[in-house]
Amino acid sequence: MAASELYTKYARVWIPDPEEVWKSAELLKDYKAADSVLHLQLEDGKDLEYKLDPKTKNLPHLRNPDILVGENDLTALSYLHEPAVLHNLKVRFIDSKLIYTYCGIVLVAINPYETLPIYGADIINAYSGQNMGDMDPHIFAVAEEAYKQMARDERNQSIIVSGESGAGKTVSAKYAMRYFATVSGSASEANVEEKVLASNPIMEAIGNAKTTRNDNSSRFGKYIEIGFDKRYHIIGANMRTYLLEKSRVVFQADDERNYHIFYQLCAASRFPELKALKLGSANDFHYTKQGRNPAIDGVDDAKEMSTTRQAFTLLGINESYQMGLFQVLAAILHLGNVEVKDRDADSSIIPPNNGHLLTFCELMGVTYQDMSHWLCHKKLKTTSETYIKPVPKLQAINARDALAKHIYAKLFNWIVDHVNKALHTTVKQHSFIGVLDIYGFETFEINSFEQFCINYANEKLQQQFNMHVFKLEQEEYMKEQIPWTLIDFYDNQPCINLIEAKMGVLDLLDEECKMPKGSDDSWAQKLYNTHLKTCALFEKPRMSNKAFIIQHFADKVEYQCEGFLEKNKDTVNEEQIRVLKASKFDLLVELFQDEEKATSPTGAPTGKRTVLSVKPDKSRQGQASKEHKKTVGLQFRNSLQLLMETLNATTPHYVRCIKPNDYKHAFTFDPKRAVQQLRACGVLETIRISAAGFPSRWTYQEFFSRYRVLMKQKDVLPDKKLTCKNVLEKLVQDPDKYQFGKTKIFFRAGQVAYLEKLRADKLRAACIRIQKTIRCWLARKKYLRMKGAAVTVQRYVRGHQARCLAKFLRRTRAAVVVQKFQRMHVQRSRYRRMQAAALAVQCILRAYMARQRYKALVREHRAVIIQKTVRGWLARQWYKRTLAAVVRLQCCVRRMRARRELKKLKIEARSVEHFKKLNIGMENKIMQLQRRVDEQNKENRLISERLMGLESSHAAEGERLRAELSRLRSAEDDAKSNANRVTTLLEELARLRKELETTRSEKKVIEDWAETYRDEMEQMVAELKEQNGLLKSEKDDLNRLIQEQNLQMTEKMCKAIQEETQQLETDLNEERSRYQNLLTEHLRLEERYDDLKEEITLSMAVPKPGHRRTDSTHSSNESEYTYNSELAESEEGSRGGEDVTRGNLDMSLFLKLQKRVTELEQEKQSLQNELDRREEQFQRARARDDEQHKKARSAELEYESLKRQELESENKKLKHDLGEMRQSLSGSAGATSAAPGSPAYKVLLDQLNASCEELEVRKEEVLILRSQLVSQKEAMQHKDEKQTMTEPVLYVEDVQKMRDAGEITQAYISLKDTNRSPQFLRRPLEVNELVNRLRSPNPDYHRLNEDGELWLVYEGLKETNRLLETQLQAQRRSHENEVEVLRGELQSIKEENNRQQQLLAQNLQLPPEARIEASLQHEITRLTNENLEMLNTDDPKKYREYRLNVLRRMIDLMEQLEKQDRTVRKLKKQLKVFAKKIGELEGGQVENVSPGQTVDEPIRPVNIPRREKDFQGMLEYKKEDELKLVKNLILELKPRGVAVNLIPGLPAYILFMCLRHADYVNDDQKVRTLLTSTINSIKKVLKKRGDDFETVSFWLSNTCRFLHCLKQYSGDEQFMKFNTTKQNDHCLSNFDLAEYRQVLSDLAIQIYQQLIKCMENILQPMIVSGMLEHETIQGVSGVKPTGLRKRTSSIADEGTYTLDSILRQLNSFHSIMCQHGTDPELIKQVVKQQFYIIGAVTLNNLLLRKDMCSWSKGMQIRYNVSQLEEWLRDKNLMNCGAKETLEPLIQAAQLLQVKKKTDEDAEAICSMCNALSTAQIVKVLNLYTPVNEFEERVAVTFIRTIQSRLRDRMESPQLLMDTKMIYPVTFPFNPSSLALETIQIPGSLNLTFLTRV
Length: 1893
Fold this sequence. Notes:
It is a single chain. By secondary structure, the chain is of the alpha+beta class. The chain is built from 57 helices and 26 strands. A hairpin with a 5-residue loop joins β13 and β14.
């Protein structure tokens, strides 16, 4: 397919842009061959017409498909050109935050200007051992590749790090060295790295400076060789430096600085130790103020000075040398301030007494006159004479500056030498990896000699790089056996020839330097004349005659000729150097001593640094002159040639550092600067070379998997290679566009993009067809749903209408019936009303007529009466009216006052204050108002009653008046004369009626007021009730709020308690994990110790004839629980010494003993001080009673003095014996001293026998003393109890406290159970405890034998005697208080004591078990009778006090006696052991003893238990069969052989049954040796076959079962509750093995961790391939194109691990553990650990592999996890916590599949990914890569949103999971239901020597 055919509509291209370098555009129509213009549309929517070059017709570069953007390797891009490279780097750097990218064999590193968490130990472990293409690009991947090739190919390697200043070269080199130090596995590698890193502050201080581009620019190059031994462990390093910029010492451009060290010195000038340097501010010195900006933002020079001094100290440069260095540096600063003045035109002078020159001479130790003279003069030599010529001012200043530069260069080289000395090693170097940190291509506005040398070096490196790339391409083509043509690549050899060839730039420069009057101008003219017309790479600027232009591989550079000659010559006045060499300053002389030994750089050996400065040899003047004339350019060319030879002899690896911007902004990309550096560093050249051939390479399997969609079913053949060939011939017509290799298909540039386009079109067409079908199906389903819904709606509507019609008909019928009855009811009611009305009218009319007639009659009768009585009434009426008027007046006055009062009360009732008062105390006010209302009601009732009384009185008065009127009417005739008076009476009557009406109206007013008042009161009461209701509601709200708060507080407390519980559980797990990690480290150190011991044994001489070495595998656990740890080490040392020479001293043991002696001396001193303090307290307490008890004590003192004399004599005897033993040991030498029968052994044997006899006597005395004390205590306890019953008031509290504490009966019970005491098997005293108690003040350690055991024994015997003496003294002090009370009974007590001694003498004849019992019985009987008699003493109170004090002291004394008794028993056992050993040596018989086994004790009578008829679940074996038992049951037992058919845990049951028998016969030594041998044998098996999972699982199961048996049959109630009655009868009876249970638990932990490591080693190679790379669901994900870096195929080839492989391995693990009877809880813990490893390794690789972060891969991971979960369900292990360990992996897979666009998506991701850290989430989002065009990349804004939402998370910043983490293991108690008596031993175990008991 022609390239022009790809320029179709919507194709995207790159066009040049002045700002962004390249800009993307899209074609608006297809391109035709005749078109001269392309119609484009930019990304911002603007249309553009792009004109094509009419001559070349070159089309713009095509843009790669989106799925290829962001690739790890730039060579994987289909279109390889500059815009594609730039865009890919920008996308990775800006969008994905990835700073590393491969470009073929080059690693491109972009400086992020931000600290990234990608350099931790977890990342190093993740990259260790991985192939370079399998992981994302990283500096660690390059370092791993170099390390792997060094080990695999046995060839030295080089890592070449280059780039501009500030691009991150030094940091990249440092990380590479850190990687080597971490993965090399040496014990000392970290120290080398620390020293190399410690050199960084020094080298930065003396070699780095601030420039316009970088605040910490390295002004020199360096090559560090890291040396490795044959095991590829780091052993040392060496540094070479190149081209130090010495001119910076004397000159700096604007905004630049001199080297940092000068400013650090000035900043630290205030320090007292630097006062003598006479420094000040940096602005005070000419050499530090020229840049006019002496400070760097954010840098504290004083603090940096402290860092530099610390680094000097770390590298071994002491304080005096440091001060000397600072002295030289300060002298350089003062030298720069020396002022030179003109004397005349040809001479100059330095003013006398120049202060800075004086300081310079003082600091350098030279004379002022000589230095001032030679600064202004020079010496000229001819063949016959020597002239001294003054120089002008300018030359004098140049000479001064040249001297300063020369001194600084010397100082720089001296420091580098000392750094190399600190990094030097004496071990032979096998290979090395060199790290070259060198300056990149530089071009500035003004380029001088330094830039010329730098660019020359880069030309050489680029040539080497091009040749290497071309060589790799050629090798790849030849390997695949495809035809290839010569690739045309840029060869910069002409440019190199222009610089270094004969008559080249450097040659002409050196020639001009030799000319007497050579100058920069004349040199420039020679360059023009020589190269201007002959070399196309050399040009002359148009506007300058003092510059030249060279066309380098990267760009054209214009160099200014000014200063070239001066910098190249680097001349220094030899007389000035001679003055300096005559200095009294030692360091200065040492600096210039190097010149006497200087050699040509070309002769420098490999591995040594190249000296760049001039170094003349003073030994011969002529040679010195020649060496001095060697120019800097020549030296640099020679050193560069040496470097190229070194690089060519190694395999190079390239790292190109890119500076993204000049402003140091984090993750900011400047395309212009990036393109400039890409062109300069050779990356684009690599792209060009790759693009010239076949850059895209696919394996046949990858091509088939990717482009299977382009094949038809008939095209697929069994042979995939043939299938790919047939398909390619159909798809790509031009055969030159591809080539078929042996394993790969090679494509030309652009062909992969074409295939991707075909694939995308095919997938798009398939998607359209799928969409069409799906949409049709969805539309039909929608139509059917709508149709069904319509029918359903119609059915329901019609039914509803029918129901409505029926309802209407029923309602109509009901309405007719209702109307009928309603009308009938209305008519009947109307008739009844009319009838009732008629009857009422008739009744009323008739009544009215009757009343009218009656009224007429009454009126006539009354008129007669009125007339009769009116005359009498008128006479009385006047009086009554007068009286009534008075009464009326009174009433009116009272009424007026009442109204006023009422009005006042109303006003008061309506006032605000009144209402406020009413509202105060609402409850009380309501009651008051209620009472008020009652009172008002009462008043109303009174008023009503008064009104009724008035009405009744008025009625009575009316009746009376009527009666009077009738009387007057009857007397009408008599009263006619008084007619006027009748009229008056009538008026009076009217007036009275009027008053009556007025009274009624007032009554009504009062009633209205009362009603109003009542309403107001009711309203007020209602308001108060409403307020009360509000208050009640508020109260309810408050109660509800309080309840809610209580509920919340309860929830919070529950939550807090839960969190605290979780925290405690976490702390417990962490503590358990720390403990188990310590056990692991202990085991590792123990194995290392054993290995070293074996190596030492193998390296030593052959053992003596007649002696055979016994294997010693004593572990720390064994030594802890045998006699003592140091003793075991001594035994091992003694046996090891026998193998070589008895006379040789084991230095390690000797050093251990010395250390132990020092510790013991310190502890002895502390105990002595404590003893003195207690003695002083006792003396003060005893002084008060001395006078009272002086007489009574005399007898006891005599007895004690005799006893003390006896002990002293015995001690003298022991000292004498010990002296004889020492003399005999010192007198003999070599192996003869250890031979049986020698004097030393005879003396030792005699002393041991005597010691044993003496110890037996002391033992009996201790037992007698104990029995006496205990019997006295029991008697006094009985007496005190009896007396307490009679006198309960006295001493009840003290005695009760002692009873509660159990102190009274403790001694008797402990003595009664002596033989069954658990102390027999508990850990013995440590050496420091034993020796502190049993050691003499000044022992002679070096005169004892190397074991030190016999010395411990004899020292113990002496200390035992002293302890017995101390006990007797304590007894004497207790008796002193007793004498006062028992003075009168002394004689009887003595007689009784004599009798008791006779009884005790008889008891000594009894066995030890019955001896104490008999003594106790006798003493209890005697003292009980005695104490009962003493109750009748005269002073019972004093007696009771005495008894209580004695009782307390006896208890303390008894505890001490018990402790000493244990010590005596242990010493006795040790003596027996040593006696047995000596006996064996004398007999010349050496037995093979199993590890940890001790010899038997002498035969002593034992109580033989009676044999039961039934089997008791015990196995008996002989002592000599123990080795056979351990060998057959542990060492030689094969889990896959005999053990597979055994009962699970049978070896554990057999061992426990043997242990039960040893416990049954009360043989503590047998118990100890059996347990120790078992533990050591299991360790031996695991050490030998620790890589076999089946073996480790088998012994983990048996160790746990043995541990459970020890618990189940220990006799503890917490374990016995699970047993049957028979099992409880089988519990251990004599020994407490709790401490051995701890030992077995530790052993089980070690086995568990070994099991996990073994399992991890098996699973590790399967996880990545099975979980990530293998396509479990075929066809879901396609393989993306790869570059030159090989990537592991994701297709399952033959031998590739799949998910089924992992599941099969998990099944194998599970079945093996179940077969071995492993506890179910332990299996759950193992499975949880397995799943954690699978999840952690998978997630870590996912986070480091960009090609795995896609939607389809997320689906694959989720499917794989579901298969693992299904496996858990099948095994019933879902509740073991394994699923939770996969949660981070599950969430990462979900994160790859969820939608990632909106804020809602961000919120969902934050809530979903709670098991992932923020760094992991962001990393996955950054790495997310679409595999197909239908997927979209994650927007940068979306990632920022995620980061902002997760900012408040409190989590670890670590990116990767810790794959080495092991969950702490627990061993829950799991009792066995198997009865021991039913166990049968198979014959296959060869244990016939065991006897069932």
